[in-house]
Design goal:
Shape of chain A: elongated
CATH architecture of the largest domain in chain A: Orthogonal Bundle
Structural class of chain A: mainly alpha
Number of helices of chain A: 9
CATH topology of the largest domain in chain A: Tetracycline Repressor, domain 2
Number of domains of chain A: 2
Helix content of chain A: over 70%
Oligomer: homotetramer
Number of strands of chain A: 0
Radius of gyration of chain A: 19 Å
Strand content of chain A: under 5%
Order of helices and strands of chain A: HHHHHHHHH
Distance between the termini of chain A: 50 Å
DNA sequence: AATGAATGAGACTTCATTCAT
DNA sequence: TATGAATGAAGTCTCATTCAT
């Protein structure tokens, strides 16, 4: 049961996201957001303490569906290697479907002075932990080489997937997602495979 | 022979870079830049059309030393695999020494409306081409697997290195560069190695 | 029903006009305008895109009363000659009461790059058309000589009146308006009179 | 014998004049003047104390030829009426040949705060005195009506000619100068003619 | 729950002028 | 005689936020 309040917030989230993806956080003005959302300026300050809190709430709002997708990817995979592939695939799909959000994640992640920096870092942690667990499991089971650092590898694979995905979306958006996923699969599976067994 | 003009520009570049590293582009004011550079405010506008062009010029100014480092890395490496390692190492060192720059590269690369977007894209191209050439050579020589797309792999490796490096600098800056390089080496060398020979 | 917005705008118009009368357009700063109007600086930019647009709106705002005065002058005059005199008189009074405006009209009319150039040209057209119609009527009725070009004569008389009026206001402001009007009447009525009947 | 100094000054005069005619005094920057003149910025301050003095000198520089033309017009005319016509003609020609200067004369004449206001006023006086003398002579000889104020009529005729000329140049520059002169002749000669004798 | 006019600190930019060469 | 880099006061404009309605 979406209240009137919820509807208004959603419209503001969507407007803010689209604009921030294109022009960055500081490049986007509250005026632009409310114009696109079709609400009055004061409305932002009625619902949130300011622009920063709106973005923070927006991030929180998008977290649940992201997590759900990852959880599902992990649940159906039979082994670590398949899990890793499923995670990459889930990440790619999520980036494709949440292009604006992904851009924001990448372009704002290292901006330490931002108030919602912590929220973004936590989000990144959440995603990476899925990768990390799969890698750890793979090492334990002997299908992944043991001399790699699971947290490091997880964040490296995550980063590789994100940057590849954004390159794909920005520079060659017509390439089918399958090709991209397959290329990443080849690179990643090899990278973590234990000797000679890839 | 450094003219007076050049000296002044250099001082502004250095001030701008240091400040942007800390606070981001929009978070840095012209007032701060000129105060740190020890010049008058008008000087920025005498040499450039504005803050943005100063940054654009700054980027162009730093391109040469970056290229030099990469050229050197390539020149001294005996084979494709070593070249790739040298490139990763060079990239890591460069990121460490040009942290502000690297951040900008990542946070502004997909922001198409910025005036210096083209300059940054060109910079990225330059770097990636070094990776691409090494990978292509490796494939030709049979030391890298032939079913990977050289341009894709190049940009993926570049992206992985950048995000890893920034994670390293932001989240665990005390880790020695050797560890980071070694971890990436393990991941990347494996990733591109042809079957069974890694 | 004057809205809050309208009240604010009116106060800014009045302040701007008074100041520009004294110091010219570029000699008047936004700071001075808002201080005199008793509003905040941002208010100018909330209602207009900038100083120039404020002036443009101001011109449009003053057009109606000017037109009204001319319409009235024309309505009550019984014949072309009296109409012409009434128009000159109306123009003189209007210039005296809108000195700032009149100065602007003259000093900016031939300055084609100003954003509100078109507005001013239209304003001039409006005024001149009243003169033109009266002259045309006079020629048709035979009281004005037929070998003069109505549009040309109209703009010439308008120009003569404006420059005389400004000379009067600037160089001998104590002269009563009646004397000025009478002198112009003698010159203009003669000028357009058909032979021998002046 | 034009010294190097003279040449430089002339080039600055020409550049300044062209620019000020188009954009006004405050709308024209010293940068633009020196760029158009092909000299360095400091050169303006070597020859003059500043932008205002450059304009003042410029005005003085153009005064002599203007006066010469008027003197000649007066010298060759046999009677007051012809003199007046010759003056109008001279004024029109001068405006056509010194379009930029004329614009400046009109658009800056009533700007009382300008430092060179006095110079312009004096210039205007000079021109008007020619008209005034002719009118006075005509009144004395009985060919002009005696109830008009010679100084007033002189400045009114001058103003009418200037505004007509500028309208002509700006709004219908293809009209031959003869037509314009003839129209003004009809208006002015009538205006000042004594009863029934025009 | 929502509005939108108003705010004002602070940002960017302009430009006449100075001065070392 | 001329240059052009450098200046800094003064200006225009932005925009997150407040507040009366």
């Amino acid at each position: 049961m979406a209240t009137r309040s919820d509807t208004t917030k959603t419209r503001m989230y969507e407007a803010a996201l689209a604009l921030i993806a294109e022009k960055g956080f500081s490049g986007t003005t509250v005026d632009e957001i409310v114009e696109r959302a079709g609400v009055a300026k004061g409305t932002v300050y009625y619902h949130f303490t300011g622009k920063a809190e709106l973005v923070e709430a927006l991030i929180a709002d998008r977290l649940a569906p992201l997590e759900a997708r990852f959880r599902e990817a992990v649940a159906t995979a039979p082994d670590p290697r398949t899990t890793l592939e499923a995670l990459v695939r889930a990440e790619l799909e999520w980036i494709r479907d949440n292009r604006a959000f992904s851009k924001m994640l990448v372009t704002e992640l290292w901006r330490e002075e931002r108030v919602w920096h912590d929220t973004l870092v936590a989000l990144r942690r959440t995603i990476i932990e899925y990768f990390e667990r799969a890698i750890r499991d793979g090492i334990a089971e002997g299908v992944f080489r043991s001399d790699i650092d699971a947290p490091f590898a997880a964040s490296a694979l995550f980063g590789m997937t994100v940057t590849s995905a954004l390159d794909w979306l920005v520079f060659s958006p017509t390439t089918p997602i399958e090709s991209v996923a397959e290329q990443i699969r080849r690179l990643t599976s090899m990278a973590v495979a234990s000797d000679g067994k890839a």
